[in-house]
Design goal:
Layout lengths: L4 E4 L3 H12 L5 E4 L3 H8 L4 E3 L10 E4 L6 H7 L10 E3 L6 H8 L4 E5 L9 E7 L5 H11 L3 E5 L6 H9 L1 H18 L4 H22 L3 H8 L6 H11 L1 H33 L1
Parallel strand pairs: 1-2, 1-4, 2-3, 4-5, 5-6, 7-8
Antiparallel strand pairs: 6-7
Helix pairs in contact: 4-11, 6-11, 7-8
The structure holds 1,4-dihydronicotinamide adenine dinucleotide and (2S)-3,4-dihydro-2H-pyrrole-2-carboxylic acid (A1CAB).
1,4-dihydronicotinamide adenine dinucleotide binds next to helix 1.
GO molecular function: pyrroline-5-carboxylate reductase activity
Subcellular location: Cytoplasm
Catalytic activity: L-proline + NAD(+) = (S)-1-pyrroline-5-carboxylate + NADH + 2 H(+); L-proline + NADP(+) = (S)-1-pyrroline-5-carboxylate + NADPH + 2 H(+)
Length: 276
């Protein structure tokens, strides 16, 4: 039976996933988003798009890529997603597997956190499946998630919150640092284009070096810090200013927000159960 990925939401993350999939020739895709302007790029490519979902095939794989804050309204306004027998993959930050199961009346849920480099088939997704997802559906989920990059499965759902900070948010943290590097170049007199080209090649080269040599990250750092030379002055300043600690704190705050988003829904669901 043919499997179609039905993608709900093509904002920044959903469109990155759709573009990544299309780049590899995977067009078994249907896209639903109430914002008509978000759909135009994809309908122009011949992809089936709709502003609302009225029906689904039992074998469809659903991917939920709307903001977590609208998931409650989505679940009450979209009856066709209820009791879906196939696979439901969420990319929403925070929302727990049990909440999705409860709100959609479905069992086979994969909670995942991808990232925006999926757009160029360099995505990284961390995911966790519900106990009802057997080997066949698990393989299907992995195939979907690897159609726009790499995927790593974790068995403990609690790890998805820190993974949301590290993997989902990671491109923002790296881009923030890259912006500071580029700004230094510009302030020092390089053209914007030259500063950007250097920054891009730094990120690419450093990541290739890490991946190819397998050296520990800090070894790579130490190998650049020639004793008595220039780089150690910069790294010592990072140490004095506690930059490493600041980064750890920043990611902890992101992770805590993921937990908080999930808890808000879990609590409102349990209040609803008590009121029933
Ligand atoms: N932006 C990122 O890098 C990442 C985002 N995520 C998750 O992806 C989801 C989307 O995030 P973004 O794309 O950044 O948000 P966004 O605000 O860019 O896009 C959200 C999209 O969802 C659509 N939408 C709203 N209500 C909908 C409904 N009822 N049905 C279908 N679509 C609906 C909106 O029209 C919009 O196109 C969130 O749950 C977020 O936690 C996960 C990992 C990374
Ligand atoms: O900031 C957010 O909430 C989403 C989830 C991970 C990356 N972006």
């Amino acid at each position: 039976m043919k499997t179609t990925l039905v993608l709900f939401g093509v904002g920044h993350m959903g469109s990155a996933i759709a573009r990544g999939m299309l780049q590899t020739g995977n067009t078994d895709l249907r896209i639903i988003d109430p914002d008509l302007s978000a759909l135009q790029e994809f309908s122009a490519l011949g992809i089936r798009t709709d502003t609302a979902c009225l029906s689904l095939a039992p074998n469809d794989v659903l991917m939920l890529a709307m903001p977590p804050q609208v998931f409650g309204a989505f679940s009450s306004d979209t009856p066709c997603v209820h009791h879906h027998q196939g696979l439901v993959i969420s990319v929403m930050a925070g929302i727990r597997i049990s909440s999705i199961q409860q709100m959609l009346g479905t069992q086979n849920v994969v909670r995942s956190i991808p990232n925006t480099p999926s757009e160029v088939f360099e995505g990284m997704t961390v995911y966790c499946r519900s106990s009802s997802v057997g080997e066949n559906l698990a393989r299907k989920a992995r195939d979907v998630l690897e159609s726009f990059g790499r995927a790593v499965e974790v068995s403990d759902e609690a790890l998805i919150d820190p993974a949301t900070a590290l993997c989902g948010g990671g491109p923002a943290f790296v881009a923030y640092f890259a912006d500071a590097l580029q700004e230094f170049g510009i302030k020092a007199g390089l053209s914007k284009d030259a500063a950007l080209a250097i920054t891009i090649q730094l990120l690419r080269g450093t990541s290739a070096l890490l991946a190819t040599t397998g050296k520990p990250v800090m070894q790579l750092c130490r190998e650049v810090m020639t004793p008595g030379g220039t780089t150690e002055r910069g790294i010592w300043h990072f140490d004095d200013e506690g930059v490493g600690r600041t980064v750890l704190d920043a990611l902890s705050k992101s992770s805590a927000r993921s937990r908080e988003l999930g808890l808000a829904i879990t609590e409102s669901l349990s209040q609803f159960e008590v009121a029933k």
